């Protein structure tokens, strides 16, 4: 069997197959992100879908390791006063994550400490099953979410014989001051690409947002560019990385860059453990 034809999805492998793959290379990828409101035009699974496809493709190209079932969990915090003003709200408003007052669906955020317990519990399972390199493929960009992952990864890496590494499924050039946009041209383009992998052309629905003649302001649909999360937002609070300019080709390009970044991260981790 060609290494690229092997089954790599953890949940579809029998115990003997899992043992065989672990003996070949004790590497496992863990995609993780919450179900989150991504405007009216994108599915709530945008972040975990991105994490899942990124993990699967990285594993396939590497030709070793397996991919753990996607953990649909993540955390967010209330927006600080300065960011509320950047987003076009009052400094005294209460907004958690992307659950703006106009949101049609409440995001499935866990409390920070609960998210930490869930992730640590899953990682402990994998440490107990003798995986020596765990790559967390994180699809969610919230600062406190990433800090929780980083803390847990460092703790396991320093207290066990397993190296836990992680990265965000957004290319560096897309980030503004370290902050990615939300449901903008970049995420919408990736979803246009991913929907083809589902055999669909209707997961993204542009009819759910106004046509291009109408500017999209940050509070309108929970659609925000990276600048909106910074202290230097667009003066008019208008999304400049407009999701209506999204296209499948850009989505594929972004996906390729994400996979390239994770290949490099994983190879470095394997070398660190003497497995490559």
TrEMBL record:
Gene3D superfamilies: Creatininase. Keywords: Hydrolase, Metal-binding, Zinc. Its cofactor is Zn(2+). GO terms for biological process: riboflavin biosynthetic process. The keyword Hydrolase applies. It comes from the Bacteria. GO terms for molecular function: hydrolase activity, acting on carbon-nitrogen (but not peptide) bonds, in linear amides; metal ion binding. InterPro entries: Creatininase-like_sf, Creatininase/forma_Hydrolase. SUPFAM superfamilies: Creatininase. Belongs to the creatininase superfamily. PANTHER family: 2-AMINO-5-FORMYLAMINO-6-RIBOSYLAMINOPYRIMIDIN-4(3H)-ONE 5'-MONOPHOSPHATE DEFORMYLASE, 3-DEHYDRO-SCYLLO-INOSOSE HYDROLASE. This is Creatinine amidohydrolase. The lineage of its organism: Bacteria, Pseudomonadati, Atribacterota, Atribacteria, Atribacterales.
